[in-house]
Structure formats: C-alpha cells, structure tokens
Design brief:
The structure holds two protein chains of two kinds.
Chain A: E1 5-10, E2 22-28, E3 31-38, H1 46-52, H2 59-62, H3 71-85, H4 91-118, H5 123-144, E4 153-154, E5 157-158, H6 166-189, H7 192-198, H8 206-212, H9 216-220, H10 228-231, H11 252-276, E6 297-305, E7 308-316, E8 324-328, H12 331-343, H13 351-358, H14 362-365
Antiparallel strand pairs in A: 1-2, 2-3, 4-5, 6-7, 7-8
Helix pairs in contact in A: 4-5, 4-11, 4-13, 5-6, 6-11, 12-13
Chain B: H1 6-10, E1 44-46, H2 56-60, E2 66-70, E3 83-88, H3 97-101, E4 107-110, E5 124-125, E6 138-140, H4 161-164, H5 177-184, H6 192-196, H7 203-211, H8 215-223, H9 229-235, H10 239-242, H11 255-264, H12 269-276, E7 287-291, H13 295-306, E8 310-314, H14 323-326, H15 335-347, E9 351-353, H16 364-370, E10 373-376, E11 382-383, E12 396-398, H17 399-407, E13 417-421, H18 425-436, E14 440-444, H19 456-464, E15 468-470, E16 473-480, E17 486-497, E18 506-509, E19 515-518, E20 521-524, E21 528-529, H20 537-542, E22 545-546, E23 549-550, E24 563-565, H21 576-596
Parallel strand pairs in B: 7-8, 7-10, 8-9, 10-24, 12-20, 13-14, 13-20, 14-15
Antiparallel strand pairs in B: 1-4, 2-3, 3-5, 4-6, 11-21, 16-17, 17-18, 17-19, 22-23
Classes of the chains: A alpha+beta, B alpha/beta.
Chain lengths: 367, 598
C-alpha cells in the first residue's frame, strides 16, 4: 500500500540545518519525494549596504558573509578593488594573505568535522574539532586582533604585520594539528557508522555537475579537478607546491574524503608560506578613506573558499562609494537548485548530512 | 564492505585514550582568566587629554556606533571641540576603523574580553571616562605606520632660496591640479579649522570640492564669506592650519595653498563673476560710507552691495587693498592678483573713490551726514618708534614706510648693510625685500627665534635667502657718521627670564654685553598704531577708543550706533582674515540696524 505523502518543515530553527534557512520536504514514509528550499530568514542586504559605505568601510561587513571562513570574501573584495584601482600589493602581504586563507580553511574544516559528524550522531568529533579550531583562532587573535571576524585582509595588503615569533607558533600549531588528523581519521573516517551513512548518499551526477555550476569539494568529489587556486592562481599560489585532491563517487563520502585530504594540503601550504615569506612592507597604504575615490570601471575577483569558488564584483562610477557590489557564493547553487534535486529519493534522516556535505551557507544566498 | 565492519567498529574506540584530558577550550576564559593577544580588538579606550574631539572616529564608523558628546570638565577651545566619543556597544562591530583613522592616536582598543554590568543602559559608555583603567590595557593602538591618515603634506613648489633674491618674482609657485587634489584628499573634514578661522570660512566644504575635482564649486563656497580669497590664499596667517587635526602627528593640510589653488583657477574679474554668479538684491535705498579700502572695508562693501546697499569707499591711496597692497611685498602677493579681486568687487557695484583722504579731501562729518551708516576700516598706519638715541639719523627708516615706497615702485637707498629691528611679519618682509635689493641683512630681535610672531614659513624663507637673525638683541643706540647718516647699531645681549605670572619669558638686557654692528640703513619694525586725526572733535568725544582701538560690540558697532569699525583699528589680532571677519560681522550689524529696524 502506498503511504500518504506528508509535508514537513525542517528549519529555520533546527539543529540539523546549517544556518537559518528552511527546507520544506514532502515525504512518503521517510523517503523524500519533493524538496523546496525556503530562504529569507537572514537577509541583511549586504550588497545594498556596501553601496552606502565608502570603499574601505565595507570590509567590516564582508566577513559577515560567512562566519566559519570569513577571509575569502575579504580577499575577493580586496583584490577586486585593487584591480580596479591598479594598486600594487607588497609581496609579503600576498604571502600573509595566503597563510590567513589557508588557516581559515583549516579552521573552517574543523567546524565542518563537527557539523558533518554531528549530523550523523557522532558528537565527540565536534567537541574535539571545535577545541582544536580554537588553536587557530588563537593564532588569528594574535595576528589580526579578532578571533572569528578578522577584518584583516583589506585593499592594499593586510592591516598589521605578523607579530614577533608568530611563525614559530604557526608551525607548532600545524605540527599539532597534523598529528590530530590521525585521531580524526580513527574516530570519523574509519568509523563504520560514518561509512554507512555517507557512502552512496546524496550523489551528484558527474555529467551534470559543471552544467549546474557546482564548485569546490562537491565538484572535486565527483572526480572533477577544479580549484581557483590552481586554475586561476591569485596572490602567490603559483609559487607554492600543493595538489588538489579529487575523489570519484559524488556522494557525501567522496566530498568528505576531498576535505579530509585538503586539510593536509593546507598545512603543507602554510609551512611553505612560513618558509618562503619575504621581508618588506605588509601594506600599500590607501589614501584618506573618506576621500578615496576609485576610477570608473568594474572588476571581479574570485577566490577558492571551503564551499568552493566565491567571487566579488565591484563597479565604480568614479566616486568614493561603490556603485554596485555583487557577491557570488557557492551556496547559491549548492543549497538551492542542487539541494532540491539531491534530496529527492533520499531518507529524511539524511537531510542534515547532505546539507553539511554541500557546505550550505545561507548568508551567501541572501546577500 | 562486509555487513560487519570490525575495523570500523574498533577504530573509534581509540578515542578513549583522550579520556580524562582537559579540553583546550576549558583552559580559557571565562573559567580561567586569560590574557588577550597584544593587538586584541576589545573595548575602546580614549586618552581624554590627547583627544581633540575631531569626530573622525564617528565619521568613519559605518555602524553609527559613535557619537560625540560633551564631557564634564572638558571645555572646547581652539583646536578642540570639547566633545568626546561615546560608543554604543550594541552597534559596534569591533573593527577598529575608528582607531585607524584617529589623527591624534588617542583612541585605542583594550585587551578586555568581557564587560559586565547590571545597568541596562551600559551599552552606551564613554571610553576613557567610564573605563579609566583601560589606559593600562591598551592593545589595538594607532601608530604612524598603521594610521590611515595621510600625515605628509604635498610639498609646495617654490623658487630656490638664492634664485629668489634676484627679483621680486613670486616665491611660491602654487600647486598644479594633481598636487591640489592629492593635498585636498588628506583632509578629514573635521571642521576644527572652521572654528579657528576668524571668518569661519567653510574650509572642509571647499577642500572637499577640490578633492572631488570641482574647482568652480570650491570658488563659490569660498566667496560665500570671503571676497578676497586669493589674497588669503597667498598671505593669510592661517590660524586654521595651527589647529588642523592632522598636525598632531603630521603636517597640517595646506589649507591656504588649496584656497590659493582654487582661486587661481579663475584668472580675471569677469570669470570670477561668472563662476560665483552672486545673487545681488535689488537696491534697498540705504547708503553706506566706508572709510578705507583695506580688507575689512572691502568685505563690508562687497557683502553690503550684495544685500542691496549702495556702498561707497573712500581710500586715501591710489589703489585699494590697504596693507595687503602697500605692506606685503610683491613676491608674496603680486599686484595683479589683488587687482582682479578689487575689480570684481567693483563689478558688483561697489564705488571706490581713490586718492581721497578722509579728514583732508573730505571731512568725516560729511560722510557721517551723507550716509545711513559708516564703516571705518582705517588700519594702523603709524609705526611705533624705538625711542633710542640716533633714531632720527638719515638711513633710519620705518619698515612700513620702506615697504610702501618699494610697493609703489619707488627707489629707496638702503646701501649694502641693512639692520632690521623686530620679529613680526613686517620685519621679515622688510628683510627679504632688502635682500632683493642686494643688501646683506641682519635682523635684531629681543626674544628668541621661536618667540617671533612672524609666520614660521616666512622666517624659514628669510633664512633660506641668506637673512641673518640675531636673537636676544636689544638695540640701545644708533651711531651716525659725520654727515648725519646712520653707520652702526649698538645693542645689548639679553637673557630670557621666566615670567612670574606664567606669561612668555621676558628678555632682560645683560649689562656690559654691548655689541656694535655696522649698518647703512636701519629698518624699524616693532609695530604700528592707529591714527584717528581724521575724526572731528565731536566724534572723537562720542566714539570710545581704548588702547588705540575702537571699542566695538559683537557687530563691530562703535559707541556711536551709526558708526561701525573693523580691521586693525578694532581688533587685536591684526591680520587680514580678522579684518575680513570684522567686515562681515559689520554687514550683519548694519543690515540689522537699518533694514530690520525698518
């Protein structure tokens, strides 16, 4: 006998939902037959606010696009503005930026550990990883003055130089984290529950992935090698030696494997940065921010974030404020069109695991 | 994968090795006090003494979290608004931009993670007032290396020192467009300058217009309350720059040079009229007579004319401008620059009777009776004398008279060794002019160089041109040769004695320290005084004059309600911009008296 379909509203206040959004699912038994995403709980009009601020002021807003990993947005905006103005960035600043971006990637994956494992009931992982993430936040506090919202990468370079002895602290933290990764492997990736709940779940069709605009770990989890850091290198990524991991399969497991390996690559990059970073200036100072006008034109800069490619488009009419700013976030594709498609046929209990595996981030949708 | 995954079941159990270990997060605040990083962006702290209340923190704050409010015990003064920032911590996002743009570096963020209070209004508090202990906990601070203020001024192109003394060519060459835009862009629009300017010119506004590449707008804004801006752009004493917020850690914005740049973009009177395009009221039937075409008289005339008054100026000399025409040397303020401004004022409808000395060519009484109101801006034409022996020798000349003759195109024989006595702008002008006439010049000044009332740029300029300054030198006698011509100046060295009442130290002559210096001419420049001999007795009795100046109210009105006075003869600051301010105030007074009464 065919069961009667029921509509359930998951979110916006639900511990399994990443951020404030809702998924309306029609289920038959516990199988999803239709999924509709509902956003609008988090709209803060970022793009409109950027227009009302001068070219510098909005850097404090950009980090609010993504709490776990604020830096790629700051980076995209800074590079777009620099391109528009033709402002040079000192080499040292470029290295520091790469280090910050990679540290943010690790910190963000640490949080993802907790979210992905937690969505499957493996709560210990999250308790460990949030604690380990704190070591990186300590580094951020020392470098930028802020633990979560760094507001550190801005047009022209970075806000402050590395404090004395910072390199050693970074290397020490990297050594510690690298050792800890084995513990996470044992606890999470080798865990039979994790395997069972992720393999073959939430499969993205490799043939359609590019057409849909899937990026980041979800795309690489389909076996497609795509990473802005390699395809269109910015800052000093072309001078660093690292690989972009891919994994065939397209399911949650594959995406998790990609991330699992990426952390090791990030640690590798951070060590290279510390090794290669040159001396010199960390900042090519902008003029008085109140009167800083950018030439007419527009620019787009893209950066690889943990969710995939993010980009910032800015347009200037020659004034002290942006005429228009637009942010492209991976979640717009992942958490709406892709999610609605992936959920069909899946089990109700896997919604949270699938959302976590896609790196859903509602502020990227509601800009 | 087999149905039962033995490895996958056992591996997670290795987590037990962590059993009993305290997590990293538990070692931290709030359970255990933890010292924040050295540049942690915590709560604000403001050094109240260093802060000047410029409000740049409030301007830059994108969350409108900062407003500027008065604080008990802090009075506003020149260069300090008397206000201090108050932070709404419900709005603050701890970005620290306020710190980065603070021109004095008084604002900083502290190492404090938490602030606990049972007061529901405690979101709003004043850094430095409500958390004096923050001084010891400063972390995110502003340094000159990280500050977003532009501390370095765009250098003004000038003629080289020894090149200058060859002619009377203008020394300052002026900014080009690119330099002016860059210099204007340094301004943070705090407006402390407006407060310090005697005329309260709209400085941030016109600088902003220049930064936005809208020079015509700048000119219009400038002419709103100053009809002689090119003169001010060249020779103003610029009290505005003294209080510039940027000057606390850098060089002040070149406000004077920016005004000069803007006004020089309009190079003739017709163009000024076209750009300023002033609204001229229909004649209101009132007539105002003005004595003296100096800055105060011209200002009064210009703004009265715009308001529909019929204005007539009586000027003793052949040209208008007063001291700015006859006292300021042409290498600082070329004649054509003044001429175009006077021509513009005449185009507005102001009538000027040149070569008409009141008291000689026309009586003051006649003017008084003929006009509905009279403005007196006669300046300080009479120089003070030193009162030393030999002052009446040939070759002992008053510096103002000397400058008058030179500016009039006359020759003055000063020989090749000139001694200038005094430390004000007139002394420096006389010295630099003498250099241009080929003389070796020595300035004798009774106090120290840093006490000289002259503009420091003028002092520097004089030194660059080879003027020798002898400070702490008090002249006691001029020696003459047998033809009755001065040949040497004898002076005593002085020591600086601290003043008991806290005023500036006094020079006291050291007995027996006599020195003599050769001279072919001595130029005295120790100040001027008023000459009110043109006033008939009945007016001299009616108008109160104290310490050589007219006593006036806030509208420059003298004790005779129909007579207004301004400029050196009414104010103590004795500079052109104060004179312009007097003229402008008098306009309001005259208008209030005549029009509003009606």
């Amino acid at each position: 006998m065919r069961e009667k379909a029921t509509t359930l509203y998951i979110g916006p206040q639900h511990p399994g939902i990443t951020g404030n959004m809702m998924v309306r699912v029609k289920v038959e038994g516990d199988t999803i037959v239709k999924a509709t995403t509902e956003v609008g709980y988090l709209h803060r009009a970022f793009e409109k606010l950027i227009e009302q601020r001068n070219w510098l002021q909005s850097f404090t807003l950009l980090c609010r696009f993504c709490v776990p990993e604020p830096d790629p947005v700051e980076e995209s905006y800074a590079r777009a503005v620099e391109e528009l103005e033709g402002r040079e960035v000192p080499e040292r600043a470029k290295y520091i930026r790469v280090m910050v971006l990679e540290l943010a990637r690790i910190a963000s994956y640490m949080l993802w550990y907790g979210g992905q494992a937690g969505s499957l009931g493996l709560y210990t992982v999250g308790q460990w990883s949030v604690g380990d993430r704190n070591y990186i936040l300590d580094l951020f506090e020392e470098l930028t003055g802020g633990r979560v919202y760094h507001m550190y990468i801005w047009p022209g370079g970075v806000r402050r130089d590395m404090p004395e002895g910072f390199e050693e602290k970074v290397l020490k933290t990297m050594d510690y984290l690298e050792k800890r990764l084995d513990d996470y492997d044992d606890l999470m990736f080798e865990n039979s529950i994790f395997k069972k709940r992720t393999k073959g779940i939430g499969i993205i069709d490799k043939a359609k992935a590019i057409e849909w605009g899937v990026v980041g770990p979800p795309l690489r989890g389909c076996g497609i090698k795509h990473d802005v850091r390699i395809d269109d290198p910015y800052e000093v990524y072309d001078k660093l030696d690292f690989v972009v991991p891919t994994h065939e399969g397209g399911d949650i497991w594959s995406r998790a494997q990609v991330r699992r390996q990426e952390i090791r690559q990030s640690i590798r990059i951070v060590r290279q940065v510390i090794d290669k970073i040159p001396g010199g200036d960390f900042y090519n100072k902008i003029p008085n921010p109140q009167k800083w006008a950018l030439p007419k034109g527009d620019a787009y800069a893209r950066t690889e974030a943990v969710r995939g490619e993010v980009g910032m488009y800015v347009s200037s009419d020659g004034g002290t404020h942006p005429r228009r700013a637009h942010f492209r976030g991976a979640a717009y594709v992942h958490a709406i069109t892709l999610l609605e498609d992936l959920l069909v046929g899946e089990n109700l209990a896997d919604i949270s695991a699938i959302m976590n595996s896609l790196g859903t981030c509602p502020p990227e949708i509601e800009r | 994968m087999s149905f039962f995954d033995l490895k996958g079941t056992l591996k997670p159990l290795t987590a037990l090795k962590q059993f009993g270990k305290q997590p990293h997060t538990l070692k931290e605040t709030p359970f255990v006090p933890r010292e924040a990083a050295d540049r942690y962006r915590g709560f604000h702290y403001n050094d109240l003494e260093e802060c000047i209340g410029c409000g740049n923190c409030s301007t830059i704050c994108q969350n409108q979290a900062i407003d500027m409010v008065p604080v008990e015990g802090i009075e506003g003064k020149k260069g300090d608004s008397g206000l201090r920032p108050r932070i709404d911590h419900g709005r603050c996002c701890w970005c620290g931009l306020c710190v980065e743009v603070c021109p004095t570096g008084s604002l900083s963020l502290t190492k404090d993670y938490v602030y606990v209070s049972d007061d529901a209004d405690s979101f709003l508090w004043m850094p430095g007032v409500d958390n004096p202990e923050g001084k010891e906990r400063k972390s995110f601070v502003s340094t000159e290396a990280t500050s977003l203020n532009d501390f370095a001024r765009i250098p003004m192109p000038e003629l080289e020192g020894m090149e200058r003394v060859k002619s009377f060519a203008e020394v300052v060459l002026g900014y080009n467009e690119e330099q002016a835009r860059a210099e204007a862009s340094r301004c943070i629009s705090c407006g402390l300058c407006t407060e310090a300017c005697p005329e309260h010119m709209h400085i941030p506004e016109y600088i902003n217009a220049i930064a936005r590449a809208n020079d015509a707008d700048a000119v219009r804004i400038i002419y709103d309350n100053n009809p002689l801006p090119e003169m001010c752009g060249k020779v103003c004493t610029r009290r505005c720059e003294e209080v510039c917020a940027i000057a606390h850690r850098g060089e002040p914005i070149a406000i004077r040079w920016l005004k000069r740049y803007a006004t020089e973009t309009v190079n003739n009177a017709d163009l000024i009229k076209e750009i300023v395009n002033p609204e001229i009221n229909a004649p209101n039937g009132f007539k105002v007579g003005i004595v003296g075409a100096g800055p105060s008289g011209l200002t009064a005339a210009y703004y009265l004319a715009l308001r529909g008054f019929d204005c007539t100026i009586y000027e003793a000399h052949a040209k208008a401008g007063g001291m700015t025409m006859y006292g300021i040397p042409k290498y600082r303020f070329p004649e054509e620059s003044l001429d175009k401004q006077i021509e513009y004022i005449q185009k507005i409808g102001v009538k000027i009777h040149f070569n008409t000395r009141v008291g000689k060519d026309i009586s003051f009484k006649e003017i008084y009776e003929k006009y509905d109101a009279v403005f007196v801006g006669v300046g300080f034409p009479k120089p003070w004398t030193l009162g030393v022996e030999g002052e009446d020798l040939q070759g002992s000349i008053q510096a103002v008279n000397f400058l008058y003759e030179i500016n009039n195109g006359k020759q003055v024989d000063i020989g090749d060794k000139v001694i200038v006595i005094g430390g004000g702008n007139v002394a420096i002008d006389a010295a630099r002019v003498s250099r241009r006439l080929g003389a070796d010049v020595t300035i004798l000044y009774r106090r120290r160089v840093q006490d000289m009332p002259a503009d420091w740029e003028e002092i520097e300029g004089a030194e660059e041109e080879g003027v020798h300054i002898v400070p702490q030198a008090i002249p006691i006698q001029f020696h003459g040769d047998d033809k009755g011509h001065v040949k040497a100046v004898e002076y005593l060295l002085a020591e600086m004695v601290p003043d008991e009442r806290g005023r500036r130290p006094k020079p006291v002559a050291i007995e027996g320290s006599n020195k003599t210096i050769e001279a072919t001419a001595v130029l005295g420049a120790i100040g001027q005084q008023g000459d009110y001999s043109f006033l008939e007795e009945e007016f001299a009795e009616k108008i109160r004059i104290e310490r050589g100046r007219f006593v006036v109210n806030e509208f420059q009105q003298t004790t005779d309600p129909k007579i207004f006075a301004g400029g050196d003869a009414a104010n103590r600051t004795a500079d052109a911009i104060s004179a312009i301010a007097d003229g402008y105030r008098a306009v309001k007074g005259i208008e209030a008296m005549l029009v509003k009464e009606k």
